[in-house]
Structure formats: C-alpha cells, structure tokens
Design a protein that fits this description.
Elements (H helix, E strand, L loop, with lengths): L1 E3 L5 E3 L5 E3 L12 E7 L2 E9 L6 E5 L1 H4 L9 H6 L8 E8 L8 E2 L5 E4 L4 E4 L11 E2 L10
Antiparallel strand pairs: 1-2, 3-4, 4-5, 5-6, 6-7, 7-8, 7-9, 8-11, 9-10
Pfam family, one: FliW
Subunit structure: Interacts with translational regulator CsrA and flagellin(s).
InterPro entries: Flagellar_assembly_factor_FliW, Flagellar_assmbl_FliW_dom_sf
C-alpha cells in the first residue's frame, strides 16, 4: 500500500505491517488504520502514521525505556477487543508531545497505545484510578509519583 506520510513522504508499506484500530483513537474515531514507522536516525522513537490522513502522525516511544517502573493492568474489555493477546504478544507505546527544547518533551502515560503484535490490532487505553497523567517529562523521573 502506498501512503503519504508526515515525516517520510510517499512510501510503500506492506499490508501485513498495517495496524487496525477498530474504533480509531480517541479524538480520531474515523482513523482505523495506521503504520508504525521508524523515526529516521533514532531507534527509541517511532511514528504512528495514519494511512488515510497524511498529516495525522504521532511520535511514540516504548514508555519502559524512560519509565522502567511504569505499570498498569488492562481491563477485560480492552483485552477482548485486542483479541486476548498473551503478555509476550503485547507492545506498549506512549504518544509524545515533542517540545523545544527536547528535554521538555512529555509522554502520555495515562493513555497508552496497546498493540497485539500477532493480530496487528491496536487500541488506545485510557487508564483510570492511576497517578499517571497525559504529560510526564521523558527526561525526568519518576512517573506516577505526585509532587
């Protein structure tokens, strides 16, 4: 599939690599298909790119790289929607708000992106009853602590 992207221009993505978000992403309910692309020159960050809207792309990261104590439980409904993946088949991403200077960039730990890597399905889960917020500085520690 050929897609126009925000950061990579026009590229070809294998259909097997596309991620299906059955109900879209909160705020973007009509966006149901994304590609997870590398961010050139940086292995810690990826681009979650809509396949239908070229200007809709999220910079993401594995939150455990910056917040090793990050921990949450997925509810049964979310697991069902994702096809009941095993722990080994789950990839967790956090959407970043990239700021200038970069050291002030933040990660959304309250609403992680959960991907079933086998079924290629994804969902943004909004965590409740947690101290995690939508903005945690990625270069500051610790997350989930009030103060």
């Amino acid at each position: 599939m050929n897609i126009q992207t925000t950061y990579h221009g026009n590229i070809t993505v294998n259909d097997e690599e596309l991620l299906s978000f059955i109900k879209g992403i909160p705020g973007f309910h009509d966006e149901e298909q994304f590609a997870l692309l590398p961010l050139e020159g940086n292995e810690w960050f990826q681009v979650l790119q809509s396949t239908s809207t070229p200007h809709l792309a999220f910079i993401t990261t594995n939150p455990f790289l910056f917040f090793p104590d990050y921990d949450f439980e997925l509810d049964g409904a979310s697991l069902d929607q994702l096809g009941n993946p095993t722990t080994e088949d789950i990839q967790v991403l956090s959407i970043l708000t990239v700021k200038d200077p970069f050291k002030e960039s933040t990660a959304n730990l309250q609403a992680p992106i959960i991907i079933n890597t086998v079924k290629k399905s994804g969902k943004q889960v909004i965590l409740t009853d947690t101290n995690y917020r939508t903005q945690h500085q990625i270069l500051a520690q610790p997350a989930g602590k009030k103060g």
